[in-house]
Amino acid sequence: MKKTILILLSGFLGAGKTTLMLSAADILRAKGMKVACITNDQSEQLVDSKMVLRKEIPLQQIQGGCFCCRFEDLDNSITRIIDEHCPHVILAEAVGSCTDLIATVIKPLQSFHKDKLDIRPLSVVVDPERWSDLVSHTTSFTDEIHYLFRKQLEEAQCILLNKSDLLSTAQVEQFICQLTDDFTAAPVFSISAADGAGVDEWINHIIYAKPNSLPLLDIDYDKYAAGEAQLGWLNASFAINGRIGDVGLLCTSFMEKLLSDCKNVKADIAHLKLWGQDGKNTIKLSTVRNGSYMLDHMTSRDWFTDHFIIWINARVHIDPTQLSDILLKALRSLEEDFSFVITIDQMDCFSPSRPIPTYRMA
């Protein structure tokens, strides 16, 4: 039986892993290949999974912890996908605050499934502006968060400089030089997951490249755990009932309120995503920093409804109690400004617990 290709994506929060996964899935399916995806989060109600399902791609979700700490769930999900869908390629994205994946995920999978899986080199996705911020220490992110970000890149077998559509040619060349100088073991590709530029080139490389052998990552798990613990993690879903005459205005107003309140308490955003839907249409907004956001898609510009559901995923450098208060305050503002009735279906707000991998293989 021919092995299933597994492509694992890593990278810090907001780097564009999900967008890349979907862009790669489109390209692979256009080549006639069957594709499945695996998403991963510390909690439930993941916006990334909504995006995958919208494209009707077979999906498994690993929730409640990173791949390394939920290895049995990952193992079972891979087996289930192969048994039910027989994909040529599985694309899997790890939690954006996770690292040490070669020792805790790739090597165990190679050990247990060498006859089933063809595991390709670990690709780490980089947001160029985040790279600049962290290198120059221009955010409130601490040394421990910087450490986590850098360790992700140290174990990369392929580095993907994403969002090239937002950069000049000179800027792309500058970032590639910096990354190549700092992380000599991995080839660096310039891509734009948003418009697909460079993604096919990366796919051709990653499918046929021979993984370079890397030593066990030299990592201090106390420092790694401290970096994760400094991030407030919020996943919530809530229903809005009442006449909504302009869904776009509702969602942008809510997003702007969240951004404003984070700025007021000097809380740096790592990633903030909003997904909204009724029975027919969907909308997604996102940001990876304070101050601005993007309308990623909206299926109807002339959209009104009487019942609407919103999912929020927020990763912010703030105490989770404060993050929860910011969300609840924004919801109260929506009720007052638009005279809606809002019902919270689920809300989890916490800091990630210490990573305890199921396996760690040299």
Structure description:
39% of the residues lie in helices and 25% in strands. It has 362 residues and is an alpha/beta fold. It has two domains: 4-227, Rossmann fold, CATH 3.40.50; 230-350, 2-Layer Sandwich (Alpha-Beta Plaits), CATH 3.30.70. The strands form two sheets. Strands 1, 2, 3, 4, 5, 6, 7 and 8 form an eight-stranded parallel β-sheet that branches. The chain has a six-stranded antiparallel β-sheet with strand order 12-11-10-13-9-14, with helices on one face. A hairpin with a 6-residue loop joins strand 11 and strand 12. The two termini are 28 Å apart.
Indicate the topology.
Blueprint: E1 4-11, H1 17-30, E2 35-40, H2 47-54, E3 59-62, H3 71-85, E4 89-93, H4 101-112, E5 117-119, E6 123-126, H5 128-136, H6 143-154, E7 158-161, H7 169-182, E8 188-190, H8 199-208, H9 221-229, E9 232-244, H10 247-264, E10 269-277, E11 282-287, E12 294-298, E13 305-316, H11 320-338, E14 341-350
Parallel strand pairs: 1-4, 1-5, 1-6, 2-3, 2-4, 6-7, 7-8
Antiparallel strand pairs: 9-13, 9-14, 10-11, 10-13, 11-12
Helix pairs in contact: 6-9, 10-11
List the main descriptive attributes of the protein structure presented here.
single chain, 362 residues, alpha/beta, Rossmann fold, Alpha-Beta Plaits, eight-stranded parallel sheet, six-stranded antiparallel sheet, 11 helices, 39% helix
Short summary of the structure?
With 362 residues, the protein is of the alpha/beta class.
